[in-house]
Amino acid sequence: MNWQGNILPAPWFQHPLLRHESGRVNLPAAIILSDVIYWYRPQEIREEATGKIIEYRRKFRADKLQKSYRAWAEQFGMTKRQVKDAVAFLRLRGLVATEFRHVTTESGLALSNVLFIEPVLSRITELNTINLANGEEE
User: Fold this and answer.
1) Interatomic CA distance for residues 120 and 92, integer angstroms
2) Closest by alpha carbon to 35, among 1, 78, 2, 92?
3) Are 12 and 18 in contact (CB under 8 A)?
4) How many CA atoms lie within 13 Å of 38's alpha carbon, on the beta-carbon side?
5) DSSP at 19
6) Residue 133 pLDDT level (bands cut at 50, 70, 90)
7) At 17, phi and psi to the nearest 5?
8) Range with the lowest mean pLDDT among 8-22, 41-55, 77-91, 109-123?
9) What is the CATH number assigned to the segment(s) 11-133?
10) DSSP 99-113
11) Distance between terminal CA atoms of the chain?
12) Packing angle between helix 69-76 and helix 27-40, nearest 10 degrees?
């Protein structure tokens, strides 16, 4: 088996940072966050003969991940509104930082308000520090 792609750690489903005020988990936000983290995990480049890691590479070109709400909506079977709300939810909780930029494509097409997103690692580590025995943060 070749496991690849996004990972949703079990503690995330218990943590208040990913829950609505009603107490329910914001599953679209968890899915989007797991995808952001996937893209920021470096790609290992190994030496074929020894298996030794010789380099780590970023999975995307820019300094931050560029992703559109529409792309996530299509990828995960959500509406664009669900994705926008999920990103706003994550941003308000300090789990991601977003930036909208004006970019010019290789073909010269100018695009405005292009979303760039990055995880806030200090906050994300909090998601994995929950005491499942009593449902409280450690």
Assistant:
1) 12
2) 78
3) yes
4) 14
5) B
6) very low
7) -60, -25
8) 41-55
9) 1.10.10.10
10) EEEEEE-TTS-EEEE
11) 34
12) 110
The confidence score (pLDDT) of residue 131 equals 55
Report CA dihedral (34, 37, 39, 43) to the nearest 10 degrees.
-120
Eight-state DSSP code of residue 25: B
Angle between helices 69-76 and 80-92 in degrees, nearest 10: 110
- Of the candidates 42, 28, 117, the residue with the CA atom closest to the CA atom of residue 79: 28
Burial of 123 (0-12, 13-18, 19+ CB in 10 A): middle
Dihedral sign from CA coordinates of 111, 112, 115, 116: positive
Residue type, 75: Q
Tokens of 11: 């503690």
Extended strands (E) in the chain: 43-46, 53-57, 65-66, 96-104, 110-119, 130-131, 136-137
pTM: 0.85
